[in-house]
Amino acid sequence: MFDKAVNSWLDGYRKIFDYQGRATRREFGSFLVIQFVLFFVVAIISSRLFGGSSFMSTIIATVVVVASLATMLPYNVRRLHDAGQSGWACLAYIGFAPVIIGVSLAMVTKEKNNKYVVDTQA
């Protein structure tokens, strides 16, 4: 189970520019949990190495946040496709990111084929 979670997290980075296809709730949830843990581990390490409010600590945190958002957006689009929704709903990230992430995580998978993706493994 842990190896599937790690593979789901790695898929976020492997498919960083892939807005096609689908992502299950388990894959997306695993990705979010590992990203969350990784962010705190990096924050703790950088604050211990550079001091909590140092410039370098801020730069490291910014890089991690930008990398997280860059991978989260296409992953969330694929999650919305799995639920039969348009990926354009992610435009609401501008002001409502936690709400959109929570809703897309809670959405149930629709039929194998929908207007956003055709299941070729059937």
From TrEMBL:
Keywords attached to this entry: Membrane, Transmembrane, Transmembrane helix
The keyword Transmembrane appears for this protein: yes
TM region positions: 28-49, 55-75, 87-108
InterPro entries: DUF805
Pfam families, sorted: DUF805 (PF05656)
Keyword Membrane attributed: yes
Protein name: DUF805 domain-containing protein
Organism: Achromobacter seleniivolatilans
